[in-house]
Amino acid sequence: MTDAVGSFPQYDVFADEFLDHARDGLYNAHYDRPACLALLGEVAGQHVLDAACGPGLYAEELTRRGARVTGFDLSPRMVELAGQRVPDATFRVQDLARPLDWLPDDSVDQVLFALALEYVDDRVAAFREFRRVLRPDGALVLSRMHPFGDWLRQGGSYFDVRVIEEVWSQGWQVRYWLAPLESTCEELRTAGFLIECLREPRPVPESAELDPERYARLRDEPIGFLALRAIPDPRLG
User: Fold this and answer.
1) Could you tell me which residues come within 8 angstroms of residue 192 by beta carbon, excluding any fewer than 6 positions away?
2) Does some domain include residue 161?
3) How far apart (Å, rounded) are the C-alpha atoms in residues 115 and 15?
């Protein structure tokens, strides 16, 4: 196995199934999306970049809250689904291994990067592009799989940064980076960000009836996701 994930649009294979899963599922609709939206805060009148936008579920809510949304994804099918779902937003196919050269410097108020960090080989370069397009008073909100939960599943050294392959319960084959929290923090610092807030979210209480067992575990154990808000380091200009 090579130490890279590459630019193959893995989710393109099961994009429609993912939309059905994430639209109202516990992990996405009642756990990650509420956490990310809370960290974004008031978005009315803002230009929000939805990086790795998936089928447009975050963009749909951001638009409803008054944001102007520009989104992109590596998967052409995801971009197609997002455009159908949120016709008022703008979406395009984009690989985070390449610069966002279609976006000017200081052109967006916030960047949302939800549950996609694990699929990027050069994360520092991606973060630097986010910092470039952000206004000086902007913010990056990202979520990622909780590294402790990853370690519980995969074993080995928690501190090893490595690529793994896994088949998720829906039969989806995925390939992604496993990395400790300190790696993400250092990558953000290297790219010129300061972490303003870090959250280990819990599912919203009203979701308890969807899946009581998973709800109880996500409420009590660090096995799901984490989310953070980072701002451009003003010392770097």
Assistant:
1) 127, 128, 131, 232, 233, 236
2) no
3) 15
Sign of the Cα torsion 42, 33, 17, 205 reads negative
DSSP string, 216-227: HHHHHSS-SEEE
Record the pTM: 0.96
Strand pairing report for 108-114 and 134-145: parallel
Q: How many domains does the chain have?
A: 1
Instruction: Output the domain CATH number for residue 82.
Output: 3.40.50.150
Locate tokens 């990650």: which residue? Answer: 32
221 CB-side CA count, 13 A = 11
Q: Give 52-85 pLDDT, tens digit per residue.
A: 999 999 999 999 999 999 999 999 999 999 999 9
Question: In the structure encoding, which two tokens stand for residue 170, read together?
Answer: 């829906």
